[in-house]
Amino acid sequence: NLLFTCLSRDIVESIVSGVAEGLFTMLIIVAVLFAIVGVAIGITYFVQKKNGVLNSYEAFSDIMTEDEFERWQKRKNKIK
User: Fold this and answer.
1) Model confidence over 43-52: pLDDT tens digits?
2) What is the pTM of this model?
């Protein structure tokens, strides 16, 4: 919450005062946040891929049926 408070304060200060340093600081903070989230998602993906979790139906049960998953696995294995 402290980070978002500082970020929102920087946004207000940069809009009100028109100072470029506040806007630059805000952009750096947003870029760092996106980088941190991207690295976390990447690490999670590669760990799950290494452990074979992504080859199970449970990983994709929210977005496809079991038949669709089996057809997708057959196509994926055929390409390899």
Assistant:
1) 988 888 888 7
2) 0.53
